[in-house]
Amino acid sequence: MNKQLLNLLKTRRSVLSKNLSAPGPDKEQLDTILEIATRVPDHRKLEPWRFIVIQGDARKKLGEQFCKIKLADCELTDDQIKAETNRYNHAPVVIVVVFSPVEHKTPVFEQLLSCGAVCQHVNLAALALEFNSQWVTNWCAFDKGAQKELGLKPHESIAGFIHIGTAQCTPNDRQRPDLNKKVNYYT
Ligand SMILES: Cc1cc2nc3c(=O)[nH]c(=O)nc-3n(C[C@H](O)[C@H](O)[C@H](O)COP(=O)(O)O)c2cc1C
Q1: Where are the domains of the chain?
Q2: Does domain 15-54+89-169 have CATH number 3.40.109.10?
Q3: Is the CB of 117 under 6 A from ligand 1?
Q4: Ligand 1 in reach of 138 Cβ (< 6 A)
Q5: Whose CA is nearest to atom 31 of ligand 1?
Q6: Does the Cβ of 13 fall within 6 Å of ligand 1?
């Protein structure tokens, strides 16, 4: 039994992206995260996902671009502008997981499930490397302008922005599901 792995899985927690900062994964660690991320169940090997890595100065640029997109839509207070422009300035690395479905007899639903598994593998790989992370969507994931800024094709969508870094504070656990209410045994 791999007690260390079990303990990691049993106690894992996301850390809010605003509470993540350096250090983040270096190039080798980032490659490890991406390799593990793609080692997911994938019916008929369609690989219906891809990644966009945001790091360094690109984080500031993306926050500023997204803020402009938001401002074209609605008014923002100074505090909201600050929050929008700083959205990607906390965690050193953000991996955008793009859902890129393939025309195929494998249902899109199954392809989407595989993409969800990719996102959680990013979380778990980051944790195994002793980083913290948070899977976030927010308005940016669903906004056409934001998707265009990231170069998404019309059939693609954003499954998540996974922020990866080091926690500035340890989160308390949150209430977990009552298994008695979630599990039935077919007899
Ligand atoms: C698809 C998806 C999108 C999410 N988007 C957000 C988000 O935009 N903002 C947020 O605070 N949490 C978001 N979350 C929740 C966090 O990733 C995280 O699961 C939650 O804070 C609970 O933490 P835990 O992983 O420690 O249980 C999202 C989760 C999923 C699965």
Answers
A1: 15-54+89-169
A2: yes
A3: no
A4: yes
A5: 135
A6: yes
Q: E strands within 48-177? A: 49-55, 93-99, 132-136, 157-167
7 lines ligand 1 (CB under 6 A): no
SS3 179: helix
Could you tell me the distance, in angstroms and rounded to a whole number, from the CA of residue 136 to the centre of ligand 1? Answer: 5
Specify the 3-state DSSP secondary structure of 93.
strand
Bridge partners, 20 (sequence order)? 167
Residue by residue, pLDDT tens for the chain (187 residues) are: 999 999 999 999 999 999 999 999 999 999 999 999 999 999 999 999 999 999 999 999 999 999 999 999 899 999 999 999 999 999 999 999 999 999 999 999 999 999 999 999 999 999 999 999 999 999 999 999 999 999 999 999 999 999 999 999 888 899 999 999 999 999 9
